[in-house]
Amino acid sequence: MNRIPFALLILFLPLFLTSTVRGSEAPDITVETASGWIIHVHSDISPLRINEMHSWRIKVLDSESEPVTNASISIEGGMPDHDHGLPTRPRITSEIRPGTYLLQGIRFHMPGKWECKFIITAGTRQEIGLAEFEL
114 with 15: CB under 8 angstroms? Predict the structure, then answer.
């Protein structure tokens, strides 16, 4: 069996830009994009629960830790092990303060591993962050 040398693992670890949390750790999820933007997600329910519609506050900071304002944010996701998407179509309804957005209409319908991909467009720039968590 081939093993990856530890030095290479440390070198390439930043390329794996996902955040993994357990349901007991939710609702706070922090994800870093390839360019160093930070996406911080806070749910209005803690811990995340099955079949409960809820909202998230999503704070986006650029690589200089400045709020990213007037952005367009979409979310895609699902259960990769079950090959299906989210059971709802959550969407951003407002920017509630500079760089903080309200995502409404999110719900998870079964326990297991979930992924949420955040696609952020600000001007001509697009950033993507991926969060993985277990419910």
Answer: no
Tokens linked to 90: 């959550």
pTM exceeds 0.85 for this model: no
Q: How far apart are CA 113 and CA 82, in angstroms?
A: 9
Q: Which residues of 38-73 are buried (b: 16+ CB within 10 A; e: fewer)?
A: bbbbbbeeeebeeeeebbbbbbbbbeeeeebeebeb
**CATH number assigned to the domain with residue range 18-134, chosen from the 4 options 2.60.40.10, 2.60.40.1470, 2.60.120.260, 1.10.10.60:** 2.60.40.10
Q: What pLDDT is attached to residue 27?
A: 56
